[in-house]
Amino acid sequence: MRHVRALLADRPDFHWMRQYHDAVHYEGYQECAELVSGALPEGPVTVVGAVGTGASTGGLAQALRASGRAVRLVGVQPFGSVTFGSEQFNDPDAIIAGIGSSIPFRNVRHELYDTVHWLDFRHAMAGAVGLLRQHAVFAGLSTGAAHLVASWEAARHPERLHLVLGADTGHRYAERVFSRHAEARDMAGLRPLPIASLAELRPPWSVMEWAGRAAPPGARCADEGAAVSVSTVELTS
């Protein structure tokens, strides 16, 4: 990292594109939002997706809102992530690949999120297996978690269109999840614990109206050079 910073100091025409901290990644979702707007009917939409770097959920929702569409943004997190304040928990089975983090990500813009769900491995597994059974979509655990959350949200808000972001395929989970499909719980019987503050957060599944709150203390970047050693949460069994 010292060498990179020395290069930047010596060559101001260089740009350090950082996946976790560079706001330029949000711009990449403008075209995606245009495609989504063209494919979906008019009206309000709820975007549901796992939050890793924050660029996919935040970037898409921000661009859709800028186009004039009413968007509710629902983020999905594992337990054990600092991003939305669940770092005090340890999921004994796993952490989810590609979502959550043990360090702050500057690209997560907390003020964009209306609602946040936290799920453990067993609930993400139920969502992934349920998605395959119901829709023949072979997707990974972060997508499965988003599917479970979106199904619950859609049952509560049937008047809204729900758009689920599926970030991962199921191939890496063939043994850890899908070969154990008989262990997966029925999605229909699963419900989250509604909470009003992070002090009430509890596994295995909690939901909170985030309502555009600022980042919790553990998710705040001290400076532009912070958080260069990255470790994301990966669900293992």
TrEMBL record:
Cofactors needed by this protein, per the record, are: pyridoxal 5'-phosphate
Write down a Pfam family by its short name.
PALP
Boundaries of every Tryptophan synthase beta chain-like PALP domain copy: 2-153
Q: Does the record bear Nucleotide-binding in its keywords? A: no
Gene Ontology biological process terms, A to Z: alpha-amino acid metabolic process
Annotated SUPFAM superfamilies: Tryptophan synthase beta subunit-like PLP-dependent enzymes
Q: What keyword terms does UniProt attach to this protein?
A: Pyridoxal phosphate
Q: What is this protein called?
A: Tryptophan synthase beta chain-like PALP domain-containing protein
| Organism of this sequence | Streptomyces fulvorobeus
